[in-house]
Amino acid sequence: MKLILGVAGGIAAYKAAELARLLMQEGHEVQVVMTPAAEEFVRPLTFAALTGRKVLTNLFAIESAIEHISVAQEHELLVIAPATADLIARMAHGLADDFLTTLYLAFTGPVVLAPAMNVNMWQHPATRANLDTLRGRGHRIVEPDSGYLACGMTGPGRLADPEIIAEAIAREVHQRRDLEGETLLITAGPTQEPLDPVRYISNRSSGKMGYALAEAAVARGARVILISGPVHLPPPPGVEIINVRTAIEMREQVFAHLGPADIVIKAAAVADFHLSKVPDQKVKKTAARISMELDPTPDILAELGRKKGDRLLIGFAAETQNLQQEARRKLESKNCDMVVGNLVGVSDSGFESDQNEVILVLRTGESIPLPRAPKREIADHIFDHVLKLRLALHAANGH
C-alpha cells in the first residue's frame, strides 16, 4: 500500500523512524511528511534514507503549487505519529498552515493518529473534544501508553510502541468486511427518567462503548441503526441515529426498528426505575422530607429475548461484584446469546472512560475475558466473537 507517514514536532518524533522502518519491511511505499517543528527533533535525511524517498516539509519549497493535492490523491492511507496536541487541534478545526495539515484537508482516505504529549495536555478538555471530533470523522486513534514522560511526569501520553501502531495500520489496511449485508440494531448511552420538568434519574453511562460498537460495525460493512440516549458524542459516520430520552421512548424505537435487524446489541444503560406520573411543575425544595413511588421501567432486553426469533441478541451487564456469575445469570434469564460484562466503580475503565475491560459470557458455555483496551478495540473483539458464536450456534442447530 502507498501510505503517508506524517511526523509532528514532539520528542517522540524519533520513534517515527522505527515505525517507517517497520512499514517498509511490511512492503508499504512510505512517503514521509514532516512539520517544521518535527525537523527540530529528527532530520529529514533519516527518513529519506529509510524510505528511499524525498521527505516533504516546506509548503513553499515544493515542485508544484498543488503538490499537497497530488500527494493526497496518490496515497491510500494517512498515518500521523506522533500527533501532538497542537496538530490534533489544527486538524480538528480545519486549519492548514503547513504541508501536513494542508495535505490532511485534501486527503479522502482512512486516517490513523498516534497521539503523544504531556499527561495534562492529553487529559485537557480541549484535547478530549478535538479527539472526539476526529473520531467522529472515522479516524482511528492509537491510544498513547502510560509511563514516565520526557517532562518528568508519569501518566498517559507516551507514544504507543511502533509495533502497536503498525498493527493498527495493518487492521486499517486489511479492514474486514465480514458484516457486509448485515443490519445491526445497537442501543447506547443512558436514559433520563424525569422526576419533574427539571430533575431526572439517570446513570453514569457515557455511550462510548455503544458508539464504538456502531463505528466498528460500519467499518466492517454493516448497516447500523443506533438508538441513543442523551450523550455528548458526535454520531459515528455512516450510522442511522435515533435519539431518545426515556426508557419508554427507547423501547418504542427498538421495536419500531427491530424488523430488519440481524443482530441486536443492547449496550444502553437503561434506568431501572421511573416516576410513572411526572408533575407538570417543578417540585419546590422544602425542609420537609419527601418520598416518591418509583415503578420499574420496561425490561427491553427481556422482551427482546422473548421476541428475537433467529436474531443474535447481545446484552451488557455492568456490575460491582460477582461479574461472571451475574453476567451468566443475565444471559439465561433474558435469553441472550452473549452478555458483555464489566466491573464498574473499581477502576477508570467502564463508565465515562475511553477504555474498557470486559468478560464475554456466551450461550455455548464459554467465558472469554478481554483485557483492558480502548473501547474501539474492544468493539472489534466483540464482533470477532459474535461471528464465531453465530457459526457455532448454526452448527449446533444443523444449519
Care to describe what's here?
It is a single chain. With 399 residues, the protein is of the alpha/beta class. It folds into two domains: 172 residues, Rossmann fold (3-Layer(aba) Sandwich); 214 residues, 3-Layer(aba) Sandwich (Rossmann fold). Helix content is 35%, strand content 23%. The protein has 13 helices and 19 strands. Strands 12-11-8-13-16-17-18-19 form an eight-stranded mixed β-sheet, with helices on both faces. The longest helix has 22 residues.
Percent helix range:
25-40%
The description of the largest β-sheet is: 8 strands, mixed
The CATH homology group name of the largest domain: CoaB-like
Please list the strands of the largest sheet in the order they lie side by side: 12-11-8-13-16-17-18-19
- The rough form would be described as globular
Mean pLDDT across every amino acid position: 91
Q: Determine the strand fraction and express it as a percent band.
A: 15-25%
Total DSSP E strands? 19
Report the span from N to C terminus: 39 Å
Output the CATH topology of the largest domain. Rossmann fold
Instruction: Give the class from helix and strand content and strand pairing.
Output: alpha/beta
Indicate the CATH architecture of the largest domain: 3-Layer(aba) Sandwich
- Reading off the top of the CATH hierarchy, the class of the largest domain is best stated as Alpha Beta
Output the radius of gyration: 24 Å
The number of domains is 2
In terms of quaternary structure, what is this? single chain
> If helices are DSSP runs of H or I spanning 4 or more residues, what is the number of helices?
13
Which segments are poorly predicted (pLDDT under 50) over 5 or more consecutive residues? none
